Amino acid sequence: MQQPMMSLWLLWSGLILFIITMIAIGLVARRYAKATLEDFFLGGRRLGVVLAFFTTYATLFSAFSYFGVTGAYYTHGIGVYGWCADIALLSLLIYVFGSRLRAWGRKFGYICTGDMLADRYQSKVLAGLASIVFVIAIVPYVGAQLRGSGVLLEGFSQQAIPYWVGVVFMSAIIAVYVSFGGFRGVVWTDFVQGVTMMAILSVAMVIIVYKAAGGFGPLMTKIANQRPELLSLPGPKGVYNLRLTSSIIIMFGLCNFTLPWMVQRYYALKSARTLKYLAVIFTIGTMFIFIPNYYIAMAGRVYFPQLAAPETVYPMLISALVPTGIALIALIGMLAATGSTANSLVLTCSSILVNDLYLNCFSHVREISQKVVTNVSRLLISLVIIAAILVSFFGPPTIVGLVLNVAWPLMFQVFPTIAAALFWKRATATACIISIFVGEAIVLAIRLKWMPALFGLHMGLVGGIFAAITLIIVSLITKPLPEEHLKKFFDMFERPQVSG
Question: pLDDT at position 370, please?
Answer without folding.
Answer: 58
